[in-house]
């Protein structure tokens, strides 16, 4: 039930909007390149990190050398031409294109360089290459290239399209269900699975998805890929963890959305539509408060799913017909002016905190009954001039004649001067911890999580030794059954010797014994991999440790210990951000287990 409470006074907190430079130093660029590839294969990334370090240690050589990541990338593409499609390419403003592995035109003997040739080969692939995004505010960020996923990849990412992963508005009853999921590289995604009749033409679906997948903006929940296998049609987009505008406007529990945040929402939404229009995607289907999502910093983003043209070409309003543009009622098709009409209904939503039918709202505007149009929770938060201007903009957008409605650029120009509290980040305006509605890092870490985040190997050893094999569900029964054979007895002896060496902190012997146990392959134990992982860390073998942590996760996908050990290995490799994500995932699993879910 919606509860109204007294609005808390705004707290103006100084906030500096940091600008990240697109042009990084060689070492930083190398790290970013590794990070990009780690989304495909963390182990390959770790190997490249090791080779990069070796390269730097040998930098006293007088011969000029290509950067480590460039050399490795050349070998990758030469051995696998299809890898060229994943080659990281920067797309900057004004058409400046630079291949990350160099722009040299020849070697010191005058021969054409491999880099120059590869750049020419990659030019046709630029629309689908990984890109840097630079938005109007000067911020930049990186996303992977649009790609086609297999159905099996997305099935695994969503835990078999589990009911608990459904995030779409009407759950399983929605015509096209949206799931949250996680890809191999730990990137959170939203997966939209269409019903079988939505896209009968697979070629049309792929063309439409690839076109939308070229868009990259901080104002969008960007499309990362798709799947088209048999009758299956799925879209993969960035996951937005902080709910929808509809939830924050209509179904809030503790505090209504503040006026400065509402103004920010409509400006960012207008900027998103302006960006799409500039890229030739002026049509947006069924624009409503459920299409506006909030990212981990609580900044509003426009869902990319509404940019996908339905298989019936424009006939795509699923909301109540009382909210659809008049021309859609006549022709059944939308136009750019129809999108402006829907934007006007969103302005009314933001102003009133209710989903008011446009016809009723226009009656209130004509009668100058503005009090009925404004959310009572906003009392004292905005001036009469601000409220009047928003009402004026909404009424222009809702004009019956499409040609009388403003264009999206004029909406951006009108909304920008209304902004206030510019230096306060969105998550503070919405009183939501940064990183999520219920950020797990805001909770106290368990001893193992704390030890792994600090890479306190001694503390990790003590905890693993104390825990023993309690987390190996079903393993004990399997072991007792298999003890009848001599081969299994030898296997168990290897395990016992490994446990004894692990207890005595003889980690080299522990690695050998646990490896013998694993190589037999008769039994599966996530704890064995966890113990060998720590043993590798004790011997400064971080790449092998990361491999074992990931293998433990394959065996037991919800085991917090596997996530925590993965974090410890990532810290050893200098991948602090990825380690933090692994800690988050482990905390989430630990919280879920303790609550009985």
UniProtKB/TrEMBL annotation:
Broad class of the protein's primary localization: membrane
Question: What keyword terms does UniProt attach to this protein?
Answer: ATP-binding, Cell membrane, Kinase, Lipoprotein, Membrane, Myristate, Nucleotide-binding, Serine/threonine-protein kinase, Transferase
Reaction(s) catalysed by this chain's protein: L-threonyl-[protein] + ATP = O-phospho-L-threonyl-[protein] + ADP + H(+); L-seryl-[protein] + ATP = O-phospho-L-seryl-[protein] + ADP + H(+)
Specify residue ranges for compositional bias: Low complexity: 55-64
Instruction: Name the Gene Ontology molecular function terms of this record.
Output: ATP binding; protein serine/threonine kinase activity
- List the residue ranges of the region (Disordered): 1-83
- Provide the E.C. number(s) assigned to this enzyme: 2.7.11.1
What the entry lists under Pfam families is as follows: PK_Tyr_Ser-Thr, TPR_BSK1_C
Which InterPro entries does the UniProt entry name for this protein?
A: BSK, Prot_kinase_dom, Ser-Thr/Tyr_kinase_cat_dom, TPR_BSK1_C
Naming one, the record's GO cellular component terms include:
plasma membrane
Domain (Protein kinase) ranges: 164-419
Where does the UniProt annotation locate this protein? Cell membrane
Position of the signal peptide: none
- Name of the protein described by the UniProt record: non-specific serine/threonine protein kinase
Q: Which organism is it from?
A: Zizania palustris (Northern wild rice)
